[in-house]
Design brief:
By secondary structure, the protein is mainly α. It has two domains: 101 residues, Cytochrome Bc1 Complex, Chain D, domain 2, CATH 1.10.760.10; 85 residues, Cytochrome c-like domain (Cytochrome Bc1 Complex, Chain D, domain 2). It has eleven helices and no strands. The chain is elongated.
């Protein structure tokens, strides 16, 4: 059986080598969330803290991906090589799968974006972002656009500037409670943001918030 490579320090992931420009063009964190949930959460845990169901069975404890002190020191290229399994000798351990052998480059890039979200965002994903995407596509995309950039179809008709949900720096300034209030009650004045509290349940609004948190690249 072919030996798999991983970190000797807490375990991280694996990647495929890209050009330097590719690292700056991350996929949305939401795409990475789905890949992470399907492939990485069994070891790292869905919250990325390293306490997944399989973690106790491994010789090397999976990395805590919420540890900003550690991950901020790693460049995107370094993390990419760790995920792929091509990091320099001595930085890998046998418990870490070489995801570069199984996942396409686009999914590896989205994983990198989600890992960056896990250690850089101040706000947890507590709802179901997959359900949130469905609700967002059905109700919010007409104004905010299908990609969340604030360029929905209706902006071609009305003079309005919906919020850009892909702007990580500005979105990170707002708490989940603040976003909930905006979605639930709407905004006053000419911004045309309607309130959804009579249409969406509290859980549905929470799911939308979780999806919005993952719209931006990190």
């Amino acid at each position: 059986m072919k030996q798999m490579m991983v970190w000797k320090l807490p375990v991280i992931f694996a990647i495929v080598i890209l050009s330097s420009n590719a690292f700056a063009d991350h996929s949305k964190s939401f795409d990475g969330y789905r890949v992470f949930k399907a492939n990485c959460s069994v070891c790292h845990g869905l919250d990325g803290t390293g306490n997944g169901p399989l973690a106790s069975k491994l010789e090397t404890k999976p990395a805590d991906l919420t540890n900003s002190n550690r991950l901020e020191k790693k460049s995107d290229r370094e993390l990419f090589k760790i995920i792929e399994g091509s990091a320099p000798h001595g930085q890998l351990s046998d418990d870490m799968p070489q995801w570069g052998l199984a996942l396409p480059q686009a999914q590896i890039r989205s994983l990198l974006s989600y890992v960056r979200y896990l250690h850089s965002s101040k706000h947890p994903v507590s709802g179901n972002p997959v359900m949130g995407k469905q609700i967002y596509d059905d109700n919010c995309a007409i104004c905010h656009g299908p990609d969340g950039r604030g360029e929905g179809t209706i902006t071609k008709i009305y003079d309005m500037e919906p919020a850009d949900h892909t702007d990580a720096s500005s979105m990170n300034l707002m708490s989940n409670e603040k976003i909930y209030s905006i979605i639930s009650d709407g905004t006053k004045g000419a911004k045309l943001m309607p309130g959804w509290k009579n249409i969406l349940s509290e859980k549905e609004i929470g799911d939308v918030i979780s999806y919005i948190r993952l719209l931006s690249a990190h």
